[in-house]
Every structure is written in structure tokens, then in C-alpha cells.
């Protein structure tokens, strides 16, 4: 059915005969009227250091100009990357529930071939950039720092390029190249209208000036995104039984309790508090435990508010006719000032003995005494809920703030979701000198330095302070030692549903609400719910020196071209944490208030977010490389390259060669091919024994997952192949490329799903205590110290060299231009990528298999080492141009793919409202194929005023449903629906 829909859509598109696409679809569409206004650049620099290498050479390079981007509606960097048929699994849209994007709201990435953004090298003007300081895989560049208003073209090299550029260029290179040819002043902006949001807008101003000896360029760009609450999209806000994984948690409020008697033993069974369903919860079961499932995603945004600005300046000054000085400055800032999340988090840590009474019931549980005013009120309204002999209750599945929102944040947002901030600020300076050493030898030396600093904040409950508040000993002015609950500055916290006024999302009131209890709750929040803050900086210093030229020795079609180079890189990483998230200051739950820093597990004092250790590390890299271009005949040319990089220490060194060739078989037909070895070294943070903490769903509940570095990591290596054919018959152009990447020792995080399923093939005890699984069990921390799937509080994982990966596929690009159609030109075409295989070998840890062999093509690949990977992806497009007018229509299409997990689709007690009766929910196994139509009109007027209007997703098609928290796959889908965009640009002062 999906393929029939695709063919039907294709027929409709060809009937309309208009549009844009990605890669080649963007390229080379300048009209005759525009040609005098711009300086056409014909040299492609990406992929070679030999001067004069062009797009028609042996390497598969696509060029996208700024004019092409305008005719595509001026997509943002993230939108452009998602459109590329060669890129899958793209980070950039809000995706706080996946470890690969968590904490990176506001940041973006490019993921060529879907093999991981850490394996695509991103350059600015051919130079490296510092890594994203919050990138878990360590070697990802934040593409949202790119100065989009200054970009003149984007070059995409779809081939391994370690022989030329070194580490990270495994899948290829994306090179953003700034403008140099502006004369005068240019201003522009656009606005995108989005249903349920205040919309997005961009503003840009650029100035350029050229003299006989200098080119100056300055650009300032501002991009603003408005928040789009999840509740504005019905498809994203689903009830429990349509998607239990869609943001529903067993830890809620109303919560689940067990009554404790005078001896400390339970005197009742497990009891779910009343009013669950009335407040909007689902009264179900977590295994056999009755719980009130809480829907936390309605408090989130599907698009976060983002404020982004970039200042870019460059100068090229001719010192004399042989030497030119080049300098660049980039200041880039992204701020997500009001990141939204759940009103509070589930409890993953238990209070220490200092905060508990002498008799507190079950180990590893919070305790509420019967003297708590909330308990008294609850029993008065629900007589007989607990036995008369009860001295208090233990919490089994709980969070303090849920349906009613968090009183700390409701004054700003009636939903009452917890808030935080994410910001990234980068400063980059680059200075270089290039020119001629002799008539045949050129040189280029450059020194660049860059800092990328990220800050993220959030809020979490302090474990012991919350327990004290349950006993009436809360608040900053309470003398705990005096033990006067609710008096002399001490305050109570009521943890029960009677303190919730109602559902802040739906507006439904709580008939059992006690306003006095709610007011008391609000007064305590600042004390037990403080801010936690992380600041991390990634720094890079790079010195490059390249000489190139031609030898006096000639082959059949001319002299041999050559290049030699040296590069020095210094990568540095620093992380700092606020008081309650710095494990050197607050290692234990008993560290605050009780000053006890001795504990069995160093996890910090908060219930959910945990802490980390500060780091300040750096590493040096030295590299040397060469290239030769061998023009054997006028029809056959080859290039040979090699690069040696030395990382020092345990990482060591590596040498990677590359051979590429092109044969012009006829005037119309050419064949090209390449083979090389590539590599990626572990980042400086990957090889440190410190950790970062993510939050991941484990058996239906979010848990803390620590990812530790590994000093014994080896570089990953790959052998790459590319074989292609190019056909150019004037109006008809086509290319096809077969590509293959064969990895050894890929640097990956241990697979979460595999570790959990190995220890717990079934819920309960699973393989607890089995000596064969001792190494796996040691990675888990359990509440109360008892190994059981219900007691998991956190998981410790490590960055490792994983199992072998083999992936291959085909890129196709075809277009035909009809001349003089109603006075203009009409181009029709297709750009697509078909991934044939992505085979991951089995993985064992500690002698236990934690991952079976996997073919990741066509799968969601949740919590595996792969990204979501539809089998095919591409764009059908058409473009009509006449005079200064252009009209484009594109159909972007993505193949269906499947959720490879078995547990969410098997019968489960969790999916039933009846104890002991398993049910199954099978929807979402297949993530349906998706197509969207985009229309853009552009009018370039004679007075240098350009008007654009676009409609994206004309049919207003929802993203395909996936059994994930946001009900779609943010790495692949588009959550905005139909949008409208209008833009203006005006130039003053001369030709551009």
C-alpha cells in the first residue's frame, strides 16, 4: 500500500511539473536574469587539496548554492539536512527521551548514511570546528552554530575522506562555505506560520566591500523558534491504551503505597490511591503492582522555544600579488530559555537512615507517618483505605508533582511543567596566509581556535530533604535535631492526591482537593527542589600547512598534480557542575544537611538526575598527508592520497590510503570509483574514566543510565568503496553510485536494551545471582540492594569498541530539463538513496551475548547501536523558471520501517486494567511510509528585491506513528504539519 501511495503521489507530482529537492535537486538552477548579479564559483574544494579539483572529478560531491537554497524556501540547517537523501537519523528537533539527543535541545547534527553523526565531518570553509560539548559520542559538530546567513554554498562529499581530512570523515564531509563576493548591503527575513505556535522567523543583514586588494564581509543572522506545546497536536497526545510508551509512567501521584505496622512489617497489600482515573491517570498494573499511570508528555513541548544568533566576519587582503591574508571571526549563540519537561521526576533513589525514623518499613522506600496531615485528610475522605494498625506507609511508585503541575512553575505556564535552560555559545577565530612559493608551487597555512560552551539546567528533588518533609521536618528553618514536626519552622509535605487541585492540562477539578495542603506544598518546593546545572566546554586549536602544485613530469594529459600537508590539533574538554550535581562535593544522598559523604554507591543527592564528576582533559594530534592527481590520458584520471595521524598514548597512530579514478568513456558517459580506509579516533572525553548521565526507559520506567569513558578504547576503522556512473546528455543528466562501508571496532555505547534483556529475560529475578551474568548484574544498581527488575534504579554502561558493521547502498540522481516551455525552462528529477544492508554482528559483554546479529535497515533501532534507518529516502521534484520567477514543488518520501522490539507488542499485565489478565497492544509495529509536498514561489525583481512564498507539507500530513514518548520518531519525522512561509530580501549598493 505504501508503494502504491508513493507511485500515485509521483504521478500527481509529475503532472504539476514543479519544485525542489535535496543535494543535486538544489543544484545549479541560476536563471539568465540572475547571472549578471553574481560571481559563479566553479572550484569545488571539498575532498581534495589539489587546486582546480571540480565537481565532475572522481569523488561524489554535491554542491548546493545559496540561490538554490532560496528557491527551496530557505530551509534552516536542520531542515536542509533532513531533506538530504543521503542523511538519516538527524538530530535537531526536540527529542529529550532518546539518549543520543538528550540534553541537546537547540543543537543539530548531520548523519550521512545513517551510520552516526560522529562519523560525518562538518567543516566551515574547509576547516574543522570544535565538537558539541554535550555530544555523548564525543565527535559531533553542532550544525546549528553554522552562520546560515553567511553561507554561499554547501558541499557534500558522500565518500570516506580520512585520507584527506583525518579522523571522523568516515561517512563523508559536509563543508559549509561562506560568501566572499558581496558588494554593498543586503537585508532579509522570513516568517513561518505554524498552527498552535507563534511561528518562526529569521532576520539577516550582510555587508560586503571589495577593493583591488581586499574583500571584506560581515553577516549577522537571527533565527527565532516559538514553542509548540505537545497538546497542540492530537496525534502526539494519545491515551494509555493507544500507546503505553507514549509518555506514560507507572510512577505517579496519586501513587501506590503499602501500609506498615508497629513492627515495621507490612500490614496490608499494595494499595493504589483513589482518584487516579478522575485526575486523568490510567488505573493499571506495572507487572502485578497496581499503579496510577501518569501522562507526563502533555507538560512538554514538541518544539522548544529557541533564540539563535550568529555573527560572522571575514577579510581577504592581498599583501602583494603572490600572498593573501585571510581572517575569520564567528560568534554563535543558541539559547533554549524555557525547556519544558515533566512537573517532577520519578523516584530512583531512597533516603538514607539519617532522614528516616527508627521504624520505616521496607528498605529502600520513602516513609509517610500517619501523623502527616495529608495522610489524615486522605483517610478521612477514604475510610478504611489502610488498616487501623498502620503507623505509616511506604511509597512504591511515586513522584511529588504530576497532574496538577509543579507550583514552582505554574505562575509562568499553567501546565506547570518543570523548566530548564539549554544554551550553546561558540567563538571561533581563524587566521591564515596563502599564496605562491614559486610559479608552480602554492601554499596555505592557517591557525584556528574555537570554544563551544554548553550550559544546561534543570530541577530535581533532594532525596533526604523530601523524606524529612514527609515527616514534618522540612524547610530551611527547621531544626531537625529538635524533632518538632510541623512546628518551630518545620513544615509538612503532603504526598497524596488530595493536595492536587486538579488536572492542569484538561482543567478537570479534584473533588477531594484540600487547599490548605496544596498551599503548604508550594512553600516547601524551593528547599527540596533546587536547580542543578552543568557547564561543559569543548575546545579545538588547529594548525594546518599545505603546499600544492604541479610537477615537471607529465603524463598523457598534462603534469601530475600534488599536495603535501601537516596538521596539528589540540582537543580539550572541560565539565563543571553545580553543588548538587557535582559528585566531588555531594556524592551521597546524605551529603546535604547531614554532611555524610560515605555511601556504597556514589550517585549524588537527587532522586532522578544524578550527578557527574568534573573533568578537564586534552589531547594532541599530529598528522601528515599527501595527494597525487595522475592525468594518464584526456579521458582517464586517478588520484592517490594518504594520511598518517598520531594520537599518542594508548590510542596510537594510524595510516589511511585512498585511491580514486574517473574514466570518461564517451562525451556523455563517465565512470568513477574510489576505495579507501578510514578511521575515527575516540574523543578526549571518551577515553576518560568519568561519566555522563542520561535518562532512559528501562522496562517501562525511566532510569538513570551512566555512560563511562574507557581508557582502553581503540580507533574504529572502516574500508569504504564507491563505484559510480555519470551521464550528461545536455538536457538529461543522471548519476548512480554504489557505496559500501565495512567497519571494525566501531566506538559505541553499550546497548541498554541488550543489557536489560540479558539480565532480565523475564520480569522479577531473571538471571539475578547467576554467576554467568555476574558482570552484567554488576552494571545495575538496585533500590534496597536487592536484584530484581522492579528495583532497578540505575545502569552503568561504558563506551566500548563494538561489533563489526557492514552497510551498503545506492544513490541515484536523475533530471531532465525541457527548454522554452511557455517561455521558460522546466526541470524534472529524482534524488534518492536506497540502503541495501546495515548488518551489525552479535555483541557479547563479560561472556554474555547482549545483542544478536542485526540487520538495521528498515528498522527503528531503538536502544541499539544504530539509528532509525528507512530503506529508501528521496525527493521527486520539478522546477519551472521564467524571467525572475521560479516555482517549485517537491515530494519528499521516506520508506516504512518497523519497530524491532518485541516487548511492547507482546501481551503484558501493564496493558490491562484487570489484575492478572495480560493484554496486547500491537499498533505502531510498522512506522508507515510518509510523503510530503512542498511548494515554493520565488520572484527576483530587477530592483534587487526578492520575494519568496512557500507552503510545506501541503496536505497537512501527520508524521508516522511510532511507539515512542512523542508518538513519532523525531530523528526522521516532521511534527509541524502544514506551514506557510513568506520572505523578503533586498540588496543595496551593487552586484552580488
Overall pLDDT: 88
What structural class do the secondary elements suggest?
Answer: mainly beta
Oligomer: single chain
CATH H-level homologous superfamily name of the largest domain: TonB-dependent receptor, beta-barrel domain
The rounded Rg comes to: 30 Å
Using the coordinates above, name the CATH class of the largest domain.
Mainly Beta
Question: Judging from the principal axes of the Cα atoms, what is the shape?
Answer: elongated
Strand content: 35-45%
What does this structure look like?
The protein has 992 residues and is mainly β. The chain has nine helices and 46 strands. The strands form eight sheets. The chain has a 22-stranded antiparallel barrel. Strands 1-4-5-2-3 form a five-stranded mixed beta sheet. The two termini are 49 Å apart.
Give the structure's gist in a few sentences.
The chain has 992 residues and is mostly beta strands. Helix content is 8%, strand content 43%.
Architecture blueprint of SSEs:
Blueprint: H1 2-16, E1 61-65, H2 66-71, H3 77-83, E2 120-124, E3 127-128, E4 151-157, H4 162-165, E5 172-178, E6 184-194, E7 200-210, E8 214-225, E9 228-229, E10 248-249, E11 256-260, E12 266-272, E13 282-286, E14 289-295, E15 301-303, E16 306-320, E17 323-341, E18 367-369, H5 373-381, E19 392-397, E20 418-436, E21 441-459, H6 463-470, H7 515-528, E22 531-555, E23 558-577, E24 615-630, E25 636-646, E26 653-664, E27 669-680, E28 691-698, E29 701-708, E30 716-728, E31 732-744, E32 747-749, H8 752-759, H9 774-777, E33 780-782, E34 792-801, E35 805-821, E36 824-840, E37 843-845, E38 848-851, E39 854-855, E40 872-882, E41 885-894, E42 897-898, E43 926-927, E44 930-940, E45 945-952, E46 979-988
Parallel strand pairs: 2-5, 29-34
Antiparallel strand pairs: 1-4, 2-3, 4-5, 6-7, 6-46, 7-8, 8-16, 9-15, 10-14, 11-12, 11-19, 13-14, 16-17, 17-20, 18-19, 20-21, 21-22, 22-23, 23-24, 24-25, 25-26, 26-27, 27-30, 28-29, 30-31, 31-35, 32-34, 33-34, 35-36, 36-39, 36-40, 37-38, 40-41, 41-44, 42-43, 44-45, 45-46
